[in-house]
């Protein structure tokens, strides 16, 4: 079955995810959708120093929005900020340093941001990674999972109270069409038991982002949640993580701006706000989260079970009044992860 999924997916990808796919889809885009003034609105974008995140930050800055760039490297972040301020002529661009693989710091960052800011209109979970070797973080979590899944979960959950203070808050998560080949998994979240295949770990994390978005949309009706695939864009992440794919497809890849188009549309357009919350988008259109006949469908119970596992892990790592809840007996996790977390404590 997974062979069938991979073949169907690859044929689809070559047609839709490439630059040609964007050019075809963009014939139906309405220019007026993006003609908005974002004065007085604030946007947090993770991974805003590069690729799709930087292109998104630039477009929002040009429309007058305040941008909070959340980046892990100060030098790269400051250099991108300089470019944005200069090209957009907007000084309301702020850098925050956070490595999303440092799970406890994600909690601390969200709490700190909430205490210092009275408003946030839109959160864009853009940062992502595909680390080709299995590494664990301080808390003993596999790093791709920590960055792509738990980091997104904690940052979003932490900022929901702030987002809910606004009238039309939005959360956009940049997933990947690669998730279509993955059936949702709620066990072995740290890839301790199965063989570590970074492409599949990444695709599974991206599937989990889709499920989180669907579940949040049900739980928080005052916020508009969406998740999207940017297509295949020429960015450092692709060069680093998939050098062979990059070499064979480089002339067919989208520009970062083309990859960012749907992120921006979801973040700012009135048209996107009218779509139902919790959906998956590609090129400004809602698209299915499963390939035909691919047997990747999951039950509500399974989706909820994932959320419970994430909440459990997040709570275990959440600092509370200066002390973490690492030893809370009420919280269960897998034996080996618990061991890792205890060692880290
Ligand atoms: N490009 C594509 O074809 C494609 C396709 C599908 C999905 N995506 C998704 O698009 C999103 C943006 O990627 P991109 O293609 O624009 O690549 P990119 O230019 O390499 O940007 C990735 C961003 O994520 C940041 N990041 C990575 N790990 C981080 C961490 N631990 N903490 C904080 N920030 C971290 C990177 O920071 P540094 O600059 O410090 O590394 C960078 O700013 C990702 O979620 C990716 O999975 C991209």
TrEMBL record:
<dbReference type="InterPro" id="IPR002347">
    <property type="entry name" value="SDR_fam"/>
</dbReference>
<dbReference type="InterPro" id="IPR036291">
    <property type="entry name" value="NAD(P)-bd_dom_sf"/>
</dbReference>
<protein>
    <submittedName>
        <fullName>Dehydrogenase/reductase SDR family member 12-like</fullName>
    </submittedName>
</protein>
<dbReference type="InterPro" id="IPR052992">
    <property type="entry name" value="SDR_member_12"/>
</dbReference>
<dbReference type="Pfam" id="PF00106">
    <property type="entry name" value="adh_short"/>
</dbReference>
């Amino acid at each position: 079955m997974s062979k069938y999924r991979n073949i169907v997916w690859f044929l689809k990808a070559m047609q839709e995810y490439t630059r040609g796919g964007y050019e075809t889809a963009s014939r139906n885009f309405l220019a007026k959708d993006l003609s908005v003034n974002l004065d007085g609105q604030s946007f947090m974008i993770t991974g805003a120093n590069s690729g799709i995140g930087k292109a998104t930050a630039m477009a929002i800055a040009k429309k007058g929005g305040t941008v909070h760039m959340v980046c892990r490297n100060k030098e790269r972040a400051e250099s991108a900020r300089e470019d944005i301020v200069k090209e957009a002529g907007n000084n309301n661009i702020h850098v925050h340093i956070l490595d999303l693989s440092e799970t406890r710091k994600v909690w601390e960052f969200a709490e700190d941001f909430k205490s210092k800011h009275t408003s946030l209109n839109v959160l864009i979970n853009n940062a992502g990674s595909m680390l080709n070797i299995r590494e664990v973080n301080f808390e003993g979590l596999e790093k791709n999972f920590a960055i792509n899944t738990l980091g997104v979960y904690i940052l979003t959950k932490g900022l929901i109270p702030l987002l809910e203070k606004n009238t039309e808050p939005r959360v956009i998560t940049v997933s990947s069409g690669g998730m279509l080949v993955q059936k949702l998994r709620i066990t072995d979240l740290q890839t301790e038991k199965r063989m570590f295949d970074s492409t599949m770990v990444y695709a599974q994390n991206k599937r989990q982002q889709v499920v989180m978005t669907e579940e949040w949309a049900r739980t928080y009706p005052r916020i508009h949640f969406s998740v999207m695939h940017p297509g295949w864009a020429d960015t450092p992440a692709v060069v680093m993580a998939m050098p062979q794919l990059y070499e064979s497809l480089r002339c067919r890849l989208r520009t970062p701006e083309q990859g960012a188009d749907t992120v921006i549309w979801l973040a700012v357009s009135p048209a996107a706000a009218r779509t139902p919350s919790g959906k998956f988008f590609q090129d400004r259109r809602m698209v299915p989260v499963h390939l035909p006949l691919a047997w990747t469908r999951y039950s509500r119970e399974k989706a909820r079970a994932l959320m419970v596992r994430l909440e459990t892990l997040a709570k275990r790592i959440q600092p509370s009044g200066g002390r973490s809840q690492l030893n809370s007996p009420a919280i269960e996790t897998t034996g080996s992860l618990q061991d890792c977390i205890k060692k880290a404590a």
